[in-house]
Amino acid sequence: MRLLYSIGIFLYGLLLRILAPFHAKAKLMVAGRKDWYSRMKQTVDSSQKHIWFHFASLGEFEQGRPVLEAVKNNYLDHKIIVTFYSPSGYEIRKNTALADYVFYLPYDTSQHARLFLDLINPSFAVFTKYEYWYYFFEGLHRRGIPLFLISAIFRPDQIFFQAYGTFFLKILSYVTYFFVQNEESVRLLKEFGIRNAGLAGDTRFDRVVDIPKSRKMIPEISQFIGENPALVAGSTWPEDEQALQELLLDYSDYKLILAPHEINESHLASIFKLWPKALRFSGMATYDAAIIADSKVLVIDNIGMLSSLYGYGQLAYIGGGFGVGIHNTLEAATYGIPVLFGPNFKKFQEAKDLVQNGSGFAIASAKELKKVFAVLQDQTVRQKAGKLAREYVLQKAGATPIIMKYLKSNPVKI
């Protein structure tokens, strides 16, 4: 199985190189990893102490950020190395002040893992939620370097727990300790002989709980909304946008702030077909007041504003639920507003919790979206749901102190 895994990694890298001339994301992934060893060797001082954080993408970075901040503040004699797998993380956070060095994670091969770990030789490593790489994990284990998984969550249908998943279960055996999100994950790991796990919760709550206090004020958004009620739709895909287009036909008083998950020109073009009079955020300075007042949709054609945008809405819609799964619901819930999303949410504990406590609303069609939206036009109903959303976030915060207490009680060899 290890041979098949290695072949799969090789073929994936080859596929990216083939696609790179035609696909922007693949191009960034290939370019970011080109000559990675020589660039790291010129940059990283191997004689210094390092702590390694790895994140799949931007979402995982924001999720693990509270722990990253706490570790940086508590290990002042260490340099922080951050790696990303995806361009969505690296390109946006490559200059973050929370890290001394930021790189793409090299492809997971035996040679790459050996060279990478020889260079940084971390005191310990922290991975967030997902990302299980055999050679990097095995290399850390063989060198006696602690590896921690934070905000991890496991389900019975994952490959680790299948009859054919022995190799992938072996990857989990290299982890020093799992800080998991729920009791189900603790029980599942124990069923498969993994007892080095404890309930800590999801560090995203620690990240989002204070967002309303620190959010950026955006004058262009205030200008666009005016006196109208606003619906903020974040991380949307075409299926979400189609449902929202049908919704707005019945709610002409609403303004829609639309932050699509992908902001390539192809996707933006499909959005402007749905709403020909939609405005671009990047063009707000060029529109006159009459055009802004007349338009019902503002398309956010950049990345990084979404957590502040939710503060302008009476309601939030989170995209992805008509595809592989919804995106971050907590950045909206923390503002104390109801959260709506598509049907594919059951892999996300926080979304299930929001539905259960009456602050989250799952819809399976545009028709259902209209029905739920109509109910939430009652101010009393909407405010009650929003209050429950905010209370949920406040109750769930606190994972980071649990993780830091463990690190201090079980000091790593530095």
Description:
The structure is a single chain. The protein has helices at residues 2-19, 24-33, 36-43, 58-74, 87-93, 110-120, 134-142, 166-172, 183-191, 204-208, 211-214, 219-225, 238-248, 265-274, 289-294, 306-309, 330-333, 349-357, 366-375, 379-396, 399-409; strands at 50-55, 79-84, 101-104, 125-128, 147-152, 177-180, 197-199, 230-236, 255-260, 279-280, 297-299, 315-318, 339-341, 360-362. The protein has 414 residues and is of the alpha/beta class. The longest helix is centred in the first third of the chain and has 18 residues, at 2-19. The protein is 47% helix and 15% strand. The two termini are 35 Å apart. The strands form 2 sheets. The protein has a 7-stranded parallel beta sheet with strand order 3-2-1-4-5-6-7, with helices on both faces. The protein has a 7-stranded parallel beta sheet with strand order 10-11-9-8-12-13-14, sandwiched between helices.
| Quaternary structure | single chain
Mean pLDDT: 94
Q: Report on the biggest sheet.
A: 7 strands, parallel
What portion of the residues fall into strands of 2 or more residues? 5-15%
The helix tally amounts to 21
Q: Given the helix and strand composition, which structural class is it? A: alpha/beta
Number of beta-strand segments? 14
**N-to-C span:** 35 Å
Low-pLDDT segments: none
List its traits:
414 residues, 7-stranded parallel sheet, alpha/beta, globular, 21 helices, 14 strands
Write the layout of secondary structure elements.
Elements (H helix, E strand, L loop, with lengths): L1 H18 L4 H10 L2 H8 L6 E6 L2 H17 L4 E6 L2 H7 L7 E4 L5 H11 L4 E4 L5 H9 L4 E6 L13 H7 L4 E4 L2 H9 L5 E3 L4 H5 L2 H4 L4 H7 L4 E7 L1 H11 L6 E6 L4 H10 L4 E2 L8 H6 L2 E3 L6 H4 L5 E4 L11 H4 L5 E3 L7 H9 L2 E3 L3 H10 L3 H18 L2 H11 L5
Parallel strand pairs: 1-2, 1-4, 2-3, 4-5, 5-6, 6-7, 8-9, 8-12, 9-11, 10-11, 12-13, 13-14
Helix pairs in contact: 1-2, 4-5, 6-7, 13-14, 13-19
